[in-house]
Amino acid sequence: MLPYDTPLPVLEFEHSRIAHEVAHLRRSNEELAEALKVDGPEREYEIAIDENVAVIAKKGRELEELQIQINDAKSRGHYGNVPESQAASSSMDEAASGAMDDV
Prior knowledge:
Elements: H1 8-39, H2 43-75, H3 84-101
Helix pairs in contact: 1-2
């Protein structure tokens, strides 16, 4: 899981990257399964398929976690920024502080 304040574009990029990895692993498993049909039992193919299945499951959980983070980042006002209400409050505090420096 990436840090809470990770910007939305980074979260989306990571989600896309992992989804691409999963697609590649699934395609690989399809090819290995086809090879097993043609070539008959091959322990190495079976091991590779089992390993890919485990990685696909792990990556699937990562995708779910990232999707939660993406949804959360969007609900915070995109890009992992501070919500507008807090940003406005902070800006007013800074302006007031600056005004006090002039006195």
